[in-house]
Amino acid sequence: MSKAKKIWRFLSSMQFAIALLVLLAAACALSSxxxxxxxxxWYAARYSERMAAIILALQLDDAYHSWWFLLxxxxxxxxxxLCNGKSLPGLLKQYREMGELPAQRPGVEREGIxxxxxxxxxxxxxxxxxxxxxxGKEVLYAHRNRVGIWGAWVCHLxxxxxxxxxxxxxxxxxxxxxxxxxxQLRRVGDTNLVVGxxxxxxxxxxxxxxxxxxxxxxxxxxxxxxxxxxxxxxxxNHPATLHGMRFYQNSTGWAARVQxxxxxxxxxxxxxxxxxYLPVEDMPQLVVYFNAFYPDYVLIKGQGPATQSGKxxxxxxxxxxxxxxxxxGMNVLTGEDTLTIDDYEVVFSEPQSYTLIQAKRxxxxxxxxxxxxxxxxxxxxxxxxxxxxxxxxxEGERWRLCGLSRKGGVLFAEELDVAIKSTEKGELPHAES
Length: 433
Hints:
β18 and β19 form a beta hairpin. By secondary structure, the chain is α+β, with helices and mostly antiparallel strands. The protein is 33% helix and 38% strand. The protein folds into four domains: 3-70, no CATH class; 99-145 and 386-425; 174-253, no CATH class; 254-351, no CATH class. The strands form five sheets. Strands 4, 9, 10, 11, 18 and 19 form a six-stranded antiparallel beta sheet that branches. The protein has a five-stranded antiparallel beta sheet with strand order 1-21-20-3-2, with helices on one face. It has a four-stranded antiparallel beta sheet with strand order 5-6-7-8, with no helix packed on it. It has helices at 3-11, 14-32, 40-46, 49-57, 67-98, 116-122, 151-172, 365-384, 409-425, and strands at 108-113, 129-132, 138-144, 174-180, 185-187, 193-204, 210-221, 230-235, 240-242, 245-262, 265-273, 277-280, 283-294, 297-300, 304-307, 316-323, 326-334, 339-341, 344-361, 388-395, 398-405. The relative contact order is 0.15.
């Protein structure tokens, strides 16, 4: 055997496919242990500098777009294509032969049959066709569920489409995060879409734990003049598709109104979400950072600021102030406390929940869906449609009955015996396949 044929046989082998599936499963399990999409600094702070370097070098921070993950998927796709291509000629031949006069050795054989057509009916076979064997004997033959031989092949094709749909989707998908409070408009990344947050509600249980987040949004296309927008309500596990993009209600956080005055005169008035910062308008090197919010603020000795409940009993605003990149101070404001920096005064008020929304667009979802449907079809063909053949050869006044089933040969033989006995008694039941 030539080297090229050995490589071809290996690439199309079941052993290679199993090895690839094991590697993919291990890769997915390993990637699930690593938080995706973070920076070197983030990984170094949580693990170590060496581990952070390894994570980035192996692209474990973005595993499903890494070269090795795409390579494994490419080999699996190649294996499925080769397997299906290699088995196609044999399946076509089998499919064609099942509709012709049988020539192969039977799997089940019974002699002395007087009413073969009645047995065909009892076995649920189509009306038999007549032919003549190579020995010149009269033959009755029929087949059922011939399409079932394609089950495994169609299933492989479905898996191939699933992998292609997933891989292409991962390589080309667009994914963005937008967040804000009702009344705000937020640009969706670098797209031409803008999300208007019309309303946002947080539904709580009796123990103050969150039961559901619901946002009412309107999405506008900036390229369409006078676009009235497309509106929908989204909640956790209930996304909506607007302007060709899928919007998911992901989570929530706290925001607050921030007012800055200078020498008693209003300077800035905006809503800031926890984790955002605000440069002072006429002194941009002076920055106010909104670190965190505590609805029911309490200072725990030895631990720091915390919240006693989710209710707005004693709002606390944790802030930091930076000047030219250097921190000036950090503290918590409560009640009517005011932050004073020279001539500037900063006030936090009106705490409210903001919504965090994920926007995704996957142009190959249809391919993955088609793969799932084709795989399901293949499983139905493989497990519910059992190909079987039945033929009878005249031997004088009686007939010799032969049958063949690709699956469940023992059950097929038992079913055939029941059909023969019932026809001899004149019961003629219709056997189940």
